[in-house]
Amino acid sequence: MSINKKLSIISFSGNFDKTIAVFTLATGAAAVGYEVNLFFTFWGLNTIKLKKGRSALGKGILDRVFNVLMGGFKNLPLSRLNFLGISPRLMTHMMRKNNVATLPELVEAAKTLNVNFYACEMAMHILGLKKEDLIPEVKEVLGVAKFLEKAEGGEVLFI
Amino acid sequence: MSVKKLDITKEHCPMTCVKAKIELDKLKPGDRLEVLLTEGEPLEMVPKTAIDQGYRVIETSPAGGKNHKVIIEK
């Protein structure tokens, strides 16, 4: 029988390629029986915004401008050679052509495999985001202490 | 008892293990999943993780070329 295995990943960068790494590790680990926790903070929050494109979330003018600039799931930039957002589309095309799961497919697989999604309370506060602005799979909005409690006894990665 | 077939010979990491896990989760006690997979990591990991998660591996046999057939029962 399986022993209790756990992987917790802090998704910070929000880069397209690094987010692929987050979800590749998350789904792979969940598939082999790990409990997986994903903690989205700062740029990583773009991955789990309910509105996939650029949208003026938040209350104040600064919140709104910043959220538009940050974008959403469809605007995640490649960490290198982004070329104004052309490269992530090109990479998705290459992944599909080579029969490798694309980022949206990996996210859907993570949901199916009951990967736990958490959002950073502090980063959401700065950006004026509410839990309703995030996808419904986000189980909880957490601070560091509670995240560490959930991650305790397992491996932790910062991506 | 039902037998479901799954071909993951065209899949790559991590979807080999992911697709197997999703289908294994759907099995009821006594049901079987017949997985067609390639040698290397899929052949090493799919049966191993199935056993780790409490399933029984009934059969592992060559299925031509680099492919193998693994029958897993819940």
Structure description:
- The complex is a heterodimer of chains A (159) and B (74).
- Chain A is α/β, with parallel strands linked by helices.
- Chain A has one domain (6-158): DsrEFH-like (Hypothetical Protein Ychn, Chain: A).
- Chain A has 6 helices and 5 strands.
- Chain A has a 5-stranded parallel beta sheet with strand order 4-3-2-1-5, with helices on both faces.
- In chain A, helix 1 (16-31) packs parallel to helix 4.
- The longest helix of chain A has 16 residues, at 16-31.
- The radius of gyration of chain A is 16 Å and the shape is globular.
- By secondary structure, chain B is of the alpha+beta class.
- Chain B has one domain: TusA-like domain (Translation Initiation Factor IF3, 2-Layer Sandwich), CATH 3.30.110.
- Chain B is 32% helix and 35% strand.
- Chain B has 2 helices and 4 strands; from the N terminus they run βαβαββ.
- The A-B interface holds A 1-2, 24-25, 27-28, 30-33, 98-101, 105-106, 109, 112-113 and B 10-15, 17-18, 20-22, 45, 49, 52-54.
Descriptors:
heterodimer; A: 159 residues; alpha/beta; five-stranded parallel β-sheet; 6 helices; B: 74 residues; alpha+beta; Translation Initiation Factor IF3; four-stranded mixed β-sheet; 32% helix
Put the structure in a nutshell.
The complex is a heterodimer of chains A (159) and B (74). Chain A is α/β, with parallel strands linked by helices and 159 residues long. Chain A has helices at 16-31, 61-70, 86-97, 103-112, 121-127, 144-151; strands at residues 6-11, 35-40, 116-120, 138-142, 155-158.
